[in-house]
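ok new one. same drill as before - structure tokens go in, u give me an amino acid for every spot. 408 of them this time. try not to just spam alanines like last time pls lmao
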């Protein structure tokens, strides 16, 4: 009897799919759901909060471009920490922390989906959360190619929704009523503190580039593809965020934004006077996309760690027909449902940002150590050493700001 051939992940994802895969996660609940929550913290200084979050995310994104080209494997942050620090229990622990952050993020997103879908069909938050999680798990198990195609299609829907708001409210940018001065900080301690606190929550809106590296074994020419896709994803998302945010601040009061369960609905209704049914559908689909990608990300991390013997081998089992880690995916869906039913949206978003910032700090420490100990091999992206150092400092500043400035 012939030995069964070991299954491997299939390299089917090119630059276009990888870019949309990352954008689909970045352009999800962070802007469609949390825009009002950030405005509630930072007020008209929310623009600076998003810009600060962008800068912090960008430095770590650059670190990820080198790490992804050095180690194009599915374990992601867990592998990077293991290569840089070399203490296996720490690598396993932070790999699990990263997977947990992804699943808590997916739980956050399911809350956002429930908020929009209940504007269309009042089925209740719990029902919407469970149904969405099961459907997304089925799509993820179906295969990376179909998952990436679905994510890409939903990304286009999400981008269309943002462009629709920008088109509908573009005159608010050209002819502002509030005035430019309201958006400019006076650089008092209060201004700095609310920008920092707002940036902590806005940082959630940039999560997604780190998920891209977890499908490294399924990406064509990862050393060339990852840097371009990651940087484009951060740049495009920032441009869209700032335009939408300015329109929102010019259109709705801070109280309306903060208290809205479906901020894009209220924004579209105020801008056009029309029923926001279309926007509800678009927002629900855009939010769904982020949850799908987070489930894929977490399942690939569990698979990658199990394949290296860091977790029980059951998590590395692949479905023969689709070559996808079905056990890891089923487990991920169960965890998402658990967290989504247990915590509220704002708490989940805050937990996600804190966990990810801790992981990012350790990832940057790992890259710093790797660059000191090992020169970049030929064909690998080689970023300057000061970039991971800056990324580390910025990560720690945002963590400290949340711990010491947040009075809630």
């Amino acid at each position: 009897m012939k030995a069964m051939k070991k299954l491997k992940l299939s390299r089917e994802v090119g630059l276009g799919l990888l870019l949309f895969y990352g954008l689909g996660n970045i352009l999800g609940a962070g802007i469609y759901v949390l825009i009002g929550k950030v405005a509630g913290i930072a007020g008209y200084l929310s623009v600076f909060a998003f810009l600060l979050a962008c800068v912090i995310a960008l430095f770590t994104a650059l670190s990820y471009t080198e790490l992804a080209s050095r180690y194009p494997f599915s374990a992601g942050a867990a592998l990077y920490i293991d290569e840089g620090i070399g203490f296996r229990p720490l690598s396993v622990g932070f790999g699990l922390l990263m997977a947990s952050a992804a699943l808590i993020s997916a739980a956050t997103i399911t809350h956002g989906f429930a908020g929009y879908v209940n504007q269309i069909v009042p089925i209740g938050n719990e029902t919407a959360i469970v149904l969405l999680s099961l459907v997304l798990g089925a799509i993820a198990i179906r295969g990376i190619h179909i998952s990436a195609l679905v994510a890409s299609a939903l990304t286009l829907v999400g981008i269309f929704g943002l462009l629709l708001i920008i088109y509908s409210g573009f005159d608010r940018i050209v002819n502002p009523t509030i005035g430019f001065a309201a958006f400019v900080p006076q650089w008092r301690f209060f201004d700095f503190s609310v920008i920092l606190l707002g940036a902590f929550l806005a940082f959630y809106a940039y999560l997604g580039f780190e998920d891209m590296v977890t499908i490294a074994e399924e990406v064509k020419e990862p050393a060339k593809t990852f840097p371009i896709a990651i940087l484009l994803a951060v740049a495009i998302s920032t441009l869209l965020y700032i335009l939408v945010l300015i329109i929102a601040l010019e259109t709705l009061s801070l109280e309306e934004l903060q208290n809205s369960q479906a901020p894009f609905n209220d924004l579209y209704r105020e801008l056009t006077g029309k029923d926001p049914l279309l926007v509800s559908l678009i927002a629900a689909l855009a939010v769904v996309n982020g949850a799908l990608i987070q489930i894929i990300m977490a399942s690939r991390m569990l698979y990658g760690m199990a394949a290296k013997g860091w977790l029980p081998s059951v998590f590395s089992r692949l479905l023969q027909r689709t070559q996808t880690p079905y056990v890891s995916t089923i487990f991920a869906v169960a965890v998402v449902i658990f967290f989504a039913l247990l915590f509220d949206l704002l708490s989940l978003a805050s937990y996600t940002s804190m966990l990810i910032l801790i992981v990012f700090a350790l990832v940057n420490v790992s890259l710093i150590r790797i660059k000191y100990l090992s020169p970049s091999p030929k064909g690998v992206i080689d970023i300057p050493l000061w970039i991971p150092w800056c990324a580390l400092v910025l990560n720690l500043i945002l963590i400290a700001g949340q711990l010491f400035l947040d009075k809630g």
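The two ends are 65 Å apart (CA to CA). and btw The first helix runs from residue 15 to 26.
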